[in-house]
Amino acid sequence: MRFGLFIPQGWRHDLVGIDPADQWRTxxxxxxxxDAGPWExxxxxxxxxxxxVVTEEATHEAWTLMAAFAAATSRVRLGQMCTCMSYxxxxxxxxxxxTVDIVSGGRVxxxxxxxxxxxxxxxxxxxxPPIAERLGRLDEGVQIMRQAWTEGVSTLDGxxxxxxxxxxxxxPLQDGGIPLWVAGGGEKVTxxxxxQYAQYTNFAGAPEAFEYKSAVLRGHCERLGTDYAxxxxxxxxxxxxxxxEAEVEKGLQRLEERVTPALGAEAxxxxxxxxxxxxxxxxxxxAQIVDRLGDMRERGMDYAITYFxxxxxxxxxxxxxxxDVVPHLS
Length: 330
Hints:
Structural class: alpha/beta
Order of helices and strands: EHEHEEHEHHEEEHEHEEHHEHEHH
Strand order of the largest sheet: 3-2-1-13-10-9-8-5-4
Domain Luciferase-like: 1-302
Distance between the termini: 5 Å
GO molecular function, one term: alkanesulfonate monooxygenase activity
CATH superfamily: Luciferase-like domain
CATH architecture: Alpha-Beta Barrel
Keywords: Flavoprotein, FMN, Monooxygenase, Oxidoreductase
């Protein structure tokens, strides 16, 4: 199993209380920690407004961070989970990603999806088109980016995007272009796009849901004539880890206390409730997490992208995971 690490960027209220002047240093130091450790990749979210409620807490922009991490690290791969196609023209996005790939020495991943967060769409003036249009934009945008990365020029007279000879030089450093991760489990369209174009998928991390989405993906591959076995399937996991279950619970209580001033008591309780769900496979002791993720590995989940809500404040859980989980699953 391969492991990725989300770097706190504020979107999930994970930089609350840290002075803005110190936030880049916090993010950079965690990325460099991952670069020196057992992590294959570091990740950020492509969002502008916080969740689960919109506040005026910090949320740092994804692709700006990608460029900064490219210069601040030397080994770890750099991903977004996931870039919203409609937030940037795809020919322009392909150019941005290419430049970051070159700065990084060929370490960029492109996580891409149709987008869902209506509040920030409307706030930034994108409207909020129906899901069919958002997925249509995803499909066309992927085609444009693939052309840009492999041929150095993209042309498409599509329903949603029209580009005519958009030059993308130099090409990315990676042979065949930047690896494409299609995020989301939509069965009719998203997984069909993944089957047709992606090297990686990212969808539900609970056992039964993962197996079902995998079966749908396999079916699309069979119909399209693409290689299902060549697609790496990944999932995202919230992590709260400690030596004992009692210490895990204390960690969840600290998390709730930290976000309550920003979210309010009711939203903070709901925010933390997802860590107590039966599907929260990476919440527990090291042995419990190894057992659950080991089961997911047997089901074909080969890449776990992990989020530690307290990483900006306390690395003890992150270091425990590195020491007592990763070696048993890698």
